[in-house]
Amino acid sequence: MAEEITFKRVVPIIPVKDLEAALARYRTLGFTAHAYDGPQRYGFVDRGDVSIHLTEWDEHDPARTAASVYLYVSDADAVHDEWTAAVEGHFGAPRDTPWGLREFTYVDAEGTLHRVGSPLKS
């Protein structure tokens, strides 16, 4: 009998026009961030168990090639307060959803939509 295959984690790869600016923005959002030490313009950002990769792409156009990520956090309201105090961008107010999450949205300068949610408190 074959051993069951397990998936360990997934890491989105987000296109950016300016890798250094994107790394700085994620640092401001509380992530650790560093560029790949090689010829490719590639970066890594991490916060807790969340990892995102960034790839600098000259043809990235936020109107056509932007990405979306959903970040599950322990307290969406606290993250919203932290992020709105730290960076510019388009933020949606936290709200309760019919699917049992408290969530908000943040669209960064590269056009990436970050949906951030936490379980509703009972």
3D structure, described in words:
- This protein is of the alpha+beta class and 122 residues long.
- The chain has a single domain, classed as 2,3-Dihydroxybiphenyl 1,2-Dioxygenase, domain 1.
- 20% of the residues lie in helices and 36% in strands.
- Strands 5, 6, 7, 8 and 9 form a five-stranded mixed β-sheet that branches.
- The radius of gyration is 16 Å and the shape is globular.
Order of helices and strands: EHEEEHEHEEEE
Distance linking N and C termini: 44 Å
For the biggest sheet, the summary is: 5 strands, mixed
Mean pLDDT: 94
Number of helices: 3
Shape: globular
Indicate the proportion of strand residues.
35-45%
Give the tally of structural domains.
1
CATH superfamily: 2,3-Dihydroxybiphenyl 1,2-Dioxygenase, domain 1
CATH architecture: Roll
Oligomer: single chain
Structural class by helix and strand composition:
alpha+beta
Radius of gyration equals: 16 Å
At the first level of CATH, what is the class?
Answer: Alpha Beta
Helix percent reads 10-25%
Identify low-pLDDT runs.
Answer: none
**Total beta strand runs:** 9
CATH fold group: 2,3-Dihydroxybiphenyl 1,2-Dioxygenase, domain 1
Keywords: Antibiotic resistance
Protein name: Bleomycin resistance protein
Organism: Paractinoplanes hotanensis
Family: Belongs to the bleomycin resistance protein family.
Give a short summary of the structure:
This protein is of the alpha+beta class. The protein is built from three helices and nine strands. Residues 6-119 form the VOC domain.
Could you outline the blueprint of secondary structure elements for this entry?
Layout lengths: L12 E4 L2 H10 L3 E4 L6 E6 L2 E7 L5 H4 L2 E5 L3 H11 L3 E2 L3 E2 L4 E7 L5 E7 L3
Parallel strand pairs: 1-4, 5-9
Antiparallel strand pairs: 2-3, 3-4, 6-8, 7-8, 8-9
